[in-house]
């Protein structure tokens, strides 16, 4: 089956692209279409060749209308044909649109390819040049047009005619204007100092003109002299005459820098495309200047790259083009032919068969050029090194064999430990280039191959990190080039070394690009060199392909085992892990290396036990942190895999912990990771069941206890894992349970720390430790288990404090501890276990009783309401996530226990009596239960007769078995999960959604109320993976479940928090889903559902009174619903019309009830955020005001709404008053009925607009009219009756106020001030 990839394989947007271009029209705004076209092209930046089949069609659709418009402008005289004067008309906008797209296409595909697709008719030359002359160089917005025109002109300059014959100005014998060639050269030179890409196209254009075979020597000579003069000024050989002996200004220096880059670029093109004989006379004149310029290249990467290109072109100018006879030639390069040949036949010339090459003169100046290119291999930028490598390849293929060998030797000298990583990278690129061209002879391979193998694993520490990924990637490129360059016979002696190097890099390199590069090189070698050279190559490639190696964990732990299964590579894989990767600078690599070693133990147990383990034990106290940490990790994983095979070394292994602690390696830098490694070692030793004396067991327990209370969670978790394994394997107990000493040492100690310790790190760690205790220490009797459960339930409460402060991590770990206890002891079951000891004692561990199960359920339900906050944010979400996982575990255990109990002891008193049994019912069918009941009664009667004793009262009644899970518990559990699924945190929603998916679709939980509707609403299918973290996906689904009565309130509570949240994506998705639901209910006339939603929101306001976390989001939700007319009284009344009788709750009108609640919330509140939400709801309620036709109840309600609004209009906060006034004005505009008297409507609006509501509330001496006065005036106009207390005015005199509030007038204030 073909693999699915997101990579494009063809130009899929062709129709859209061409359609957008064809839709351009003059005078219209085409900006959006242009942006869309550029976005399409940008998708192909990584694979531009996909555009090649369509480039001609695309360019034709762009160039043809552009040419037509240019000709039209030229023929109409809009652009002048006088070459001496620069026209000012830059052309129509549509022309620049086409040219801009051509420029962008050139950026994606490259100017060399695009240049060939321009029209090249002679008639286009002058109009295109005139259009270019009409462009304003200072108009930076149209730089793309100038770029495209210069590129077009570079193609037109190559017309196969004498340019003078198509020069219209040549018709005048006495003209004073410049001719066509001079104009092209002049305009191109002017753009050489451009700071952008226009400089590149100007250089291309200039080189096209000056390299024409019929071009007069004078033009080329003039330009060369000009370039030489500029370069001499740049390197300081000649002083700029225009500077009057003074230093250049900053602006001039910048211009000179860009001009230098443009000139160097032009010179590189000239030496590349020009005739060698014509340019030889200029080489000596420029060599000194460009060498000096290279030595002072500075920080400009582009300049250094262009200089390297110029050096290589100058070098190729020195040497004539030829195919050197000494070059290595491989005959057959076909992959199919190579695989069929099986090494038969002669494929290349041997070195003895190479014909004698003639003597060739090598100019001494070439040595300077090669030296500069070798220096370029050390450059800090990759583009410069790559250009230098290609340059060395081009020059070397023209040199005699001795000189070429010297070049190879100079490159190999760069593979030195004293050289930088840049030098190694550049040398690798150069060797690959030489090998690809056949210039690296087989005689050099014995020295080159070991160097390349070293480069494949090049990794040099730089502080806390390392460098060398680019070197390793380039070394893989060299291996790839070797596979294509040499025959299998030549490569055979080096195949094993290269194969191991490539495989180790493919399996164990830290970087994904290096692993994939090594895999590609290995694949190329297997294909080109044949399966005989690369043993097991096909099998390895099948397992270690490009995509599989992208997963680093899988590469280390799985694929490496497959490769090591071949004996040829086994010791290399093991050796690389134990000598290199186990001591890597990245701790993640060390962990993976240790796991990989553990997985490889099964392949070579003796070598691991006798050699590898011995070497690692000797390094556990090494001064280097990386070495000792990796050694301990390696020992741990090997011991775990070997198990009983290391019994002879168990003393040395357990002494590792003692040696590390004696050396005090827990202290100082790296002590944390050493603690974690030691805990892992203790865990693995326990899993391996090594024989340990009691003294050693206690010592290891002390070590683990010391790490459990560490502040770093990673160390604490490692210690808990070690404790779990240690206590499970060691510390035997009697049949009656652990000794009092052991119980006191473990459980009682941990419980005391959790309950009384002030150190939060200790309480966190030991809460987990209690949960991980084995059943022999935790559940040897009911009392012990109850003590542990009660302790963790108590500490999981939101009111529990560590010291004087609450600690969310402690509560979270208590919940995790409860989860582990449930997993360990189970619910309602007993387990008979045998533990190691002298008497091989057996112990019956108890399970969770119904009261304990109920207590844990109650605790978890309480933890699901933990929304505590601190400076880190919603830390309560950690507790809720832990509680969600615990609920899933406890629910499944309780369901299993309930099934077993009911099947064993059927309950005849059950009211279940259905013909069609529900698939979710726990109880067996009624007939089966009655049969079991009869058998039970008969057995008890028979026992009574045989014993001659009367039946006891308890025998006459059937015992009801304990219940662990019922319908109400199911509703509560699912409601809490649905509530979290509807809330605002992505990670919580994701966890809740996955848990719900498992519970519903795997039929793990019975008694699901409305299972069909719930499953249908959530669209959860057993094999479908949902992205529950996506707000758009989740809220669209959860809103459908809101119609289920038993889950309605829980979903609404979570949804309200999301609607009133702060995250834009969550608010947008949840609000949109809620509004869509409202619209659907309106369309279906589901007034009952809308009314229930209103009642639920009212209940939430009552339940969470004064709790801003819930109240503010609920108010925002109410505001949203009122704006969409979902909670209007008319709809409530319509709902009542269809009912004959209503409950007391349904008789409450939403508006008056909500008004009372918001007034209570506003009372005494200083939260601006809450008050604004209250104002929004209040203004929404004014939309119902309609005085005409209203009854007394409605009028009283309307008066109360407006009175409260005017009370807020006199709020002490200026921002609140201003906001209330703004919203009230909008409400009056939308509903003119708010004002009782229509004649006063305009006056009321004027008062609102003319009053500065954020001014002084009370009257002062400076402010004659206070805000309160204006508020009272507005109330009179709108017919709102305010109380005398609310209307009271106070005149405040600032002088008296200061005198009254003079705090320094008392002796006590003086004492306080002096004590500061």
From the spread of the alpha carbons, the general shape counts as: flat
Helix content: 55-70%
Largest sheet: 2 strands, antiparallel
Total number of β-strand segments?
8
Radius of gyration of CA atoms, rounded to a whole number? 43 Å
Beta-strand percent range = under 5%
Summing up helix and strand content along with how strands pair, one would put the structural category as mainly alpha
Give a quick precis of the structure.
The protein is mainly α. 63% of the residues lie in helices and 2% in strands.
Task: Describe the protein.
This protein is mainly alpha-helical. Helices cover 63% and strands 2% of the residues. It is built from 61 helices and 8 strands. The strands form 4 sheets. It has a two-stranded antiparallel sheet with strand order 1-2. A two-stranded antiparallel ribbon has the order 3-4. Strand 5 and strand 6 (842-845) form a beta hairpin. Helix 15 (365-376) packs antiparallel against helix 16, helix 40 runs parallel beside helix 44 and helix 50 (1108-1123) packs parallel to helix 54 (1168-1181). The longest helix has 29 residues, at 876-904. The N terminus and C terminus are likely disordered.
């Amino acid at each position: 089956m073909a693999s699915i990839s997101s990579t494009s394989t063809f130009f899929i947007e062709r129709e859209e692209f061409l359609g957008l271009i064809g839709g351009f029209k003059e005078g219209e705004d085409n900006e959006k279409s242009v942006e869309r076209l550029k976005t399409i092209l940008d998708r192909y930046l990584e694979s531009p060749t996909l555009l090649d089949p369509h480039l001609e069609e695309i360019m034709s659709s762009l160039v043809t209308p552009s040419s037509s418009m240019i000709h039209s402008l030229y023929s109409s005289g809009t652009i002048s044909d006088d070459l001496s004067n620069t026209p000012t008309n830059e052309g129509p906008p549509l022309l620049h649109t086409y040219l801009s797209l051509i420029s962008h296409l050139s950026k994606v595909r490259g100017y060399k390819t695009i240049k060939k697709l321009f029209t090249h008719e002679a008639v286009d030359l002058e109009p295109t040049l005139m259009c270019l002359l009409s462009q304003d160089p200072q108009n930076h917005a149209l730089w793309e047009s100038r770029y495209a025109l210069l590129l077009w002109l570079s193609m037109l300059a190559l017309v196969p005619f004498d340019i003078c014959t198509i020069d219209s100005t040549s018709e005048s014998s006495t003209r004073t204007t410049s001719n066509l060639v001079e104009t092209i050269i002049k305009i191109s030179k002017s753009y050489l100092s451009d700071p952008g890409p226009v400089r590149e196209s100007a250089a291309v254009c200039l080189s096209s003109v000056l390299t024409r075979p019929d071009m007069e020597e004078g033009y080329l000579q003039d330009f060369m002299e000009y370039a030489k003069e500029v370069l001499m000024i740049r390197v300081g050989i000649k002083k700029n005459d225009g500077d009057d002996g003074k230093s250049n200004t900053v602006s001039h220096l910048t211009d000179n820098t860009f001009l230098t880059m443009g000139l160097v670029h032009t010179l590189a093109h000239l030496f590349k495309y020009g005739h060698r004989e014509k340019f030889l006379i200029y080489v000596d004149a420029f060599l000194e200047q460009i060498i000096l310029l290279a030595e002072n290249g500075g920080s400009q990467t582009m300049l250094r790259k262009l200089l390297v290109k110029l050096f290589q072109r100058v070098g190729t100018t020195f040497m004539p083009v030829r195919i050197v006879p000494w070059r290595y030639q491989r005959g057959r390069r076909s992959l199919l032919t190579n695989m069929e040949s099986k090494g038969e036949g002669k494929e290349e010339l041997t070195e003895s068969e190479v014909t004698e090459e003639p003597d060739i003169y090598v100019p001494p100046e070439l040595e300077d050029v090669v030296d500069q290119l070798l220096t370029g291999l050390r450059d800090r930028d990759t583009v410069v090194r790559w250009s230098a490598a290609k340059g060395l390849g081009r020059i070397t293929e023209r040199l005699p064999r001795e000189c070429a060998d010297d070049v190879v030797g100079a490159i190999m000298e760069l593979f030195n430990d004293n050289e930088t990583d840049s030098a190694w990278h550049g040398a690798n690129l150069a060797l690959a280039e030489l090998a690809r061209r056949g210039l690296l002879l087989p005689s050099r391979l014995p020295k080159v191959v070991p160097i390349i193998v070293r480069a494949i694993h090049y990794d040099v520490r730089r502080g806390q990190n390392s460098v060398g990924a680019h070197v390793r990637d380039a070394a893989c490129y060299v291996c790839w080039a070797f596979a294509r360059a040499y025959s299998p016979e030549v490569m055979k002696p080096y195949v094993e070394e290269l194969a191991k190097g490539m495989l180790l890099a493919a399996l164990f390199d830290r970087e994904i690009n290096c692993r994939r590069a090594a895999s590609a090189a290995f694949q190329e070698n297997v294909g080109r060199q044949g399966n005989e050279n690369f043993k097991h190559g096909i099998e390895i490639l099948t397992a270690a392909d490009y995509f599989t190696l992208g997963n680093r964990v899988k590469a280390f732990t799985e694929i490496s085992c497959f490769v090591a299964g071949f004996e040829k590579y086994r010791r290399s894989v093991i050796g690389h892990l134990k000598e290199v990767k186990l001591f890597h600078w990245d701790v993640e690599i060390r962990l993976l290396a240790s796991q990989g070693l553990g997985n490889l133990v099964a392949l070579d147990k003796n070598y691991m036990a006798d050699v590898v383990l011995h070497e690692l034990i000797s390094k556990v106290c090494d001064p280097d942190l990386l070495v000792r940490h990796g050694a301990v990790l390696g020992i741990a994983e090997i011991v775990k895999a070997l198990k009983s095979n290391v019994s002879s070394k168990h003393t040395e292994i357990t002494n590792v912990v003692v040696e590390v602690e004696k050396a005090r390696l827990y202290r100082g830098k790296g002590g944390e990771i050493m603690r974690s490694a030691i805990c892992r070692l203790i865990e693995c030793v326990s899993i391996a069941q090594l024989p340990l004396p009691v003294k050693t067991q206690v010592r290891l327990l002390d070590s683990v206890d010391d790490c459990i209370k560490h502040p770093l969670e990673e160390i604490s978790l490692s210690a808990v894992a070690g404790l779990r394994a240690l206590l499970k394997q060691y510390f035997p107990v009697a049949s009656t349970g652990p000794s009092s000493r052991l119980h006191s040492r473990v459980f009682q100690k941990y419980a005391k720390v959790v309950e009384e310790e002030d150190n939060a790190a200790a309480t966190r760690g030991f809460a987990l430790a209690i949960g991980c205790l084995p059943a022999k220490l935790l559940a040897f009797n009911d009392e012990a288990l109850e003590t542990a459960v009660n302790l963790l339930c108590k500490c999981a409460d939101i009111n529990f404090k560590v010291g004087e402060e609450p600690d969310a991590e402690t509560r979270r770990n208590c919940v995790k501890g409860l989860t582990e206890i449930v997993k360990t002891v189970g619910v309602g079951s007993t387990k008979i276990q045998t533990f190691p000891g002298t008497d091989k004692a057996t112990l019956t561990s108890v399970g969770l009783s119904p009261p304990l199960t109920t207590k844990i359920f109650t605790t978890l339900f309480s933890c699901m309401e933990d929304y505590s906050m601190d400076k880190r944010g919603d830390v309560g979400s950690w507790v809720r996530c832990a509680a969600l996982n615990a609920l899933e575990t406890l629910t499944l255990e309780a369901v299993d226990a309930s099934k077993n109990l009911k099947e064993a002891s059927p309950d005849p008193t059950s009211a279940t009596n259905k013909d069609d049994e529900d698939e979710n019912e726990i109880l067996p069918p009624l007939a089966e239960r009655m049969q079991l009941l009869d058998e039970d009664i008969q057995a008890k009667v028979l026992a009574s007769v045989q014993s001659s004793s009367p039946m006891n009262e308890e025998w006459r009644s059937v015992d009801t078995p304990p219940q662990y899970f019922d319908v109400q518990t199911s509703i509560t559990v699912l409601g809490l999960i649905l509530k979290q699924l509807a809330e605002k945190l992505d990670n919580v929603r994701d966890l809740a959604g996955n848990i719900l998916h498992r519970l519903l679709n795997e039929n793990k939980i019975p008694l699901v109320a409305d299972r069909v509707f719930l499953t249908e609403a959530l669209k959860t299918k057993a094999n479908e993976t949902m992205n529950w973290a996506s707000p758009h996906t989740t809220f669209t689904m959860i809103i459908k479940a809101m119609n289920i009565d038993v889950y309605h309130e829980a979903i609404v509570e979570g949804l309200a928090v999301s609607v009133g949240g702060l995250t834009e994506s969550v608010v947008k998705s949840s609000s949109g889903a809620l509004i869509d639901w409202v619209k659907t209910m309106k369309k279906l006339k589901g007034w009952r559902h809308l009314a229930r939603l209103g009642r639920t929101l009212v209940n939430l306001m009552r339940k969470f009174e004064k709790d801003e976390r819930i109240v503010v989001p609920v108010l925002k939700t109410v505001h949203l619903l009122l704006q969409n007319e979902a909670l209007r009284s008319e709809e409530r009344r319509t709902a009542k019309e269809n009912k004959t009788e209503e409950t007391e709750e349904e008789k409450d009108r939403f508006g008056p009830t909500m008004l009372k609640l918001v007034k209570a919330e506003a009372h005494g509140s200083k939260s601006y955020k809450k008050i604004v939400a209250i104002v929004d709801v209040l203004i929404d309620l004014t939309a119902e005001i309609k005085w005409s036709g209203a009854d007394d109840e409605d009028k009283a309600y309307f008066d109360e709404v407006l009175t409260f609004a005017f009370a807020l209009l006199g709020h002490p906060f200026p921002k609140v008053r201003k906001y209330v006034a703004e919203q009230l004005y909008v409400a009056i505009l939308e509903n003119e009925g708010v004002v009782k008297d229509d004649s006063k409507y305009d006056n009321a609006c004027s008062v609102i607009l003319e009053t500065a509501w954020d001014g002084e509330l009370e009257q002062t001496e400076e402010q004659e009219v206070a805000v309160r006065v204006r508020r009272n005036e507005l109330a009179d106009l709108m017919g709102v009756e305010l109380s005398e207390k609310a209307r009271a005015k106070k005149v405040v005199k600032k002088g008296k106020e200061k005198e009254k509030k003079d705090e320094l007038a008392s002796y006590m204030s003086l004492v306080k001030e002096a004590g500061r």
